[in-house]
Specification:
The protein is α/β, with parallel strands linked by helices and about 500 residues long. The protein folds into 3 domains: about 240 residues, 3-Layer(aba) Sandwich (Rossmann fold), CATH 3.40.50; about 170 residues, P-loop containing nucleotide triphosphate hydrolases (Rossmann fold), CATH 3.40.50.300; about 70 residues, no CATH class. The protein has 18 helices and 24 strands. The strands form 6 sheets. Strands 6-9-10-3-11-12 form a 6-stranded mixed sheet, with helices on both faces. A hairpin with a 3-residue loop joins strand 19 and strand 20.
Length: about 500
Amino acid sequence: MRYGSPDSTGGPSLLKLEKISKRFPGVSALSKVDFDLREGEVHVLFGENGAGKSTLINIVAGALRPTSGKVMYRGKETHFPNVHSARKHGVHAVFQEFSLVPQLTVEQNLFLGMEKSRNGLLDKKKMHRQAKEILGRLGFEIDPGKKIIYLTRAEQQMVEIAKVFSSDLSILILDEPTASLTEKETIRLFSLIEKAKNNNVGIIYITHRMGEIRKISNRVTVLRDGKYITTVKTGDVTDKELVELMTGRVIDQIFPTIEYNPGRTVLSVDNITTADRSARDVSMQFREGEIVGLAGLVGSGKSEIMRACFGIEAIKSGKLTFNGNALTRVTPSKMLDMGMFYIPPDRRNEGLVMVRNVRENITLSALSRRRLSSCSIFLKRKNEKKLAIDLSVRLNLHPMRTERRVDLFSGGNQQKALLAKVLTRNTKLFVFDEPTVGVDVGTRVAIYEFLRDLCQQGAAIALISSDLPEILNLTHRAYVFHRGDLRTELIGAEITEQNVLFHFFKQETA
């Protein structure tokens, strides 16, 4: 097929990037990239993790300066020296990593740097009233007086979105905005995007979800290895063609075939209720040689129950049995030693130590094992380095630099470092909580193949996912949660979109 040029569609030009390059010490993040954005369109930036998408939107938002190239805003060459300057021109961004101040309230964050005052004093009543009005208008059910630190990740995402939609917009940048949102909240966001388009706002949108690209975008620009590949009208290209443009290779299928050979029970959960009642009276089983899905909306209890089993959340009542042993008290350290490994959804705050290197992150949870230490005191550095390299090769870390700080890697490669940790111990039950959040299609395929290999080697796997296709295509059994209750168990052919969604919303439709 023939692909269009960057200028092939749309109304008046808002933004035009010409031959943009950005170099960091030892790394070329962007090389002569072209991009343009029109009024009233959603233009998707599509590419693998590390393709240069984040660097490009940081340049547009004023957070980075290009090494070379030209930025044209409304037909005039423009330079945004900082984020504040870009915002004055109506350029606002919602990044994957939130810019909220955890110890401040929702309303304080909404008006941070733009506080309301009266007679030289902070007008708290006005801020509270306006914050309540903004959240209500956007359809976000959040207490404006609540501190950010006590909000779920989905609620924090909504606050970030509220900040930009309460501003004067010309260009809106959204970086994986639905990664933490429920279906209901996602629909609301898409409605807000449609209104912004009707007001001639140009929207740069980053997502790895093909359904979202089809639903809301007008054009797609593909980047690969920091280089511009092509720009296409969304309706002129298939999902398969987009993935092949992104990766530079043919991907036959996204989801692998996973054999089902259930063995003995590794974990039994009997009538467990968490201390905060986020999960109530839950009973489940996890066996060797199967992938068990835990499905439900954000806050349904699907994550909370497995965090409780791992010892992160407190248990009020019920019984846990692991490998035939009844447990009276669980802690993460105890569960790791028994053979359970939990991978959290938030790699930056819970999964990785961002300022340390890949080697240290991969081996951190296994330093006390005999392979890596003598008498649990002296580290066997040669063994540690070899283990980290071997696992990085297995997970295809790129670049293969295990002594490099993990925060200098792309999101997908950070996720690979996180997944490598589970292979450092003798693990019987792997719990993956949203393992593909914010990663590209190529990395998703690699993660799915990783899960398949673990399962077919006889491991028990719990897959917690808000991504319905993952539940439908990867799991042998699925538990569906709704507002803290386990609603149903689906097995094999019963795991259909209709059945899962029915139990997602059963309470409202009953």
